[in-house]
Design brief:
The protein has 25 helices and no strands. It is mainly α. Among the domains are: 176 residues, Alpha Horseshoe (Serine Threonine Protein Phosphatase 5, Tetratricopeptide repeat), CATH 1.25.40; 88 residues, Serine Threonine Protein Phosphatase 5, Tetratricopeptide repeat (Alpha Horseshoe). The two termini are 33 Å apart.
Length: 489
């Protein structure tokens, strides 16, 4: 399960091998991006942290990045990498903002990297892409710069473009392990499962004593419905590192899919006992909530999310709390509690607007609020109210030129067309929505059924029913519904 996932932001961690120790860097001849730091000790600590983070042992890497910035308080890349490994959203922004504030004092390559991350966080993936293209053009022999650009394409669901760039990175440095991991996922999304398996096995061969290769391969097995084999591979990861959280989560999801929900939640209780920070505790609570939703116990799921709100309130992590409240809102929509859902969505938005987060983040929250309210209106059948919000949301998304948000606009349009029994238009809109959201596959199947196309409805329902995603709330909403409907066709 552990991959670099572009979600709220698109993340890329890459090693920078040129050695620079002045605050005004000049370009080197080795084709790699230079590092700007005034301290040899900070540089050494940074590389130790980066090595661990590169192998996705994030908790273990934190201390090295913290020591690096302690040794050099102007070390921009150390702050940037620290942002991605801290266990909460609040500290992510603290460290990212510090890196951004130092961006004028580093090399051009470092500046492009930092600005690219900032663009991704602010919901501007195409701006990020242009920055990363400049980075690769300036440092075409830096395998990790290629890896970063590949991550952008990955986040935009341009899987083949991402795979091609990962292969270029590997060609430059065949011992660079991270692209094998991402390449495996890219092939998986392309449904080229043989190639995915080859990439993950090469990843295992390259770093056999690390947990993540076994974790990633386990997720491929889970996706294929080979749940018992998947658990064995996840256990191999835990044998190497008993605190590797992703593998605990993967085992719990396999247990859910094997209808062993109580056992899955017992496993999450063990994770709670092992948890080293609030991030790991939040993961345990969220995975428990997913298990309850999958079992149809949505009230119990809400109680788990409330524990996350309390956990994040204790450290005043406003962004994380807003995310928790939005999750509660979507669960309430599934329960038909539309008024309460709107209250949660409103509270989440107000938390962000009243915070000291950047204006772009606040704008994203308002935009997300429009989607959430339109989504709720459609679930309630209030077409008139939904149209107004959908129109504003579509206009803002098109102005932003964000392909991922545009997919969400198509989703809403599909939901509206389906309510109006315009099944042909619903199919067209859903086909342009995010079909990595299994709920949209389920909706598309219903539209095909409304159209009278039983064959396509059955084919799409099968994909929805067997989506086998790790910790996916939307999948837990529709898994049994899709399976039941498929059995009836």
């Amino acid at each position: 399960m552990k991959l670099l996932k572009p979600a709220v932001f698109i993340m890329g961690i890459f090693v920078i091998t040129g050695l620079f120790f002045s605050l005004t860097c000049t370009k080197v001849d080795d084709g790699k991006i230079p590092i700007t730091t005034s301290s040899h000790e900070a540089h050494k600590l940074y590389l130790q942290g980066l090595d661990l983070a590169d192998r996705l042992q994030t908790q273990e890497s934190i201390q090295y990045f913290q020591k690096a910035v302690a040794a050099d308080s102007n070390f921009a890349l150390a702050y940037l990498n620290l942002a991605f490994v801290v266990p909460n959203v609040k500290d992510f922004f603290v460290n990212l903002n510090k890196a951004v504030s130092l961006a004028d004092n580093v090399s051009e390559g470092e500046r492009l990297w930092i600005q690219g991350v900032q663009a991704g966080v602010n919901g501007k993936p195409l701006v990020q892409q242009e920055l990363y293209k400049k980075l690769v053009a300036a440092y075409p022999q830096d395998e990790r710069a290629l890896n970063l650009l590949a991550g952008n394409y990955f986040g935009l669901q341009e899987w083949q473009a991402a795979a091609d760039l990962y292969l270029q990175a590997i060609q430059i440095n065949p011992k660079f392990s991270q692209p094998y991991n991402q390449l495996g996922y890219a092939y998986r999304f392309l449904e080229q499962y043989d190639k995915a398996e080859q990439a993950f096995k090469k990843y295992i061969e390259l770093i056999p004593n690390d947990p993540n290769p076994y974790d990633s391969y386990a997720e491929l097995l889970l996706k294929a419905g080979r749940f018992d084999e998947s658990i064995v591979s996840y256990q191999k990861a835990l044998d190497l590192n008993p605190n590797f959280v992703a593998s605990h989560v993967g085992i719990a999801n396999n247990l859910n899919f094997n209808l062993k929900h109580a056992e899955a939640r017992q496993h999450m209780q063990k994770l709670l006992e092992l948890a080293r920070n609030e991030g790991e505790r939040n993961t345990a609570h969220f995975t428990t909530a997913i298990s309850f939703v999958d079992e149809g116990r949505l009230d119990a799921a809400l109680e788990e999310i409330k524990k996350m709100v309390t956990e994040n309130a204790n450290i005043n992590d406003v962004a994380a709390m807003a995310g928790n409240l939005n999750t509660m809102g979507f669960i309430m929509v599934e329960m038909g509690k539309y008024k309460q859902a709107r209250e949660e969505f409103n509270q989440a938005e107000q938390l962000i607007l009243n915070s000291n987060l950047a204006q772009d983040i606040k704008d994203n929250a308002v935009r997300g609020g429009l989607f959430n309210m339109a989504y709720t209106d459609l679930a309630e059948g209030n077409i008139k109210a939904a149209r107004v919000k959908m129109s504003e949301y579509r206009q803002q998304v098109e102005t932003m030129n964000n392909p991922n948000l545009l997919r969400q606009a198509h989703q809403l349009a599909g939901q509206l067309a389906f309510l109006e029994k315009d099944y042909t238009n619903a199919v067209n809109e859903y086909q342009q929505a995010n079909l990595q959201n299994p709920y949209n596959l389920y909706r598309l199947a219903m539209a095909y059924k409304g159209q009278g196309d039983q064959e396509k409805a059955r084919e799409t329902l099968k994909k929805a029913a067997n989506f086998n995603a790790v910790n996916n709330l939307n999948y837990s909403f529709i898994r049994f519904k899709a399976q039941r409907m498929l059995s009836e066709m």
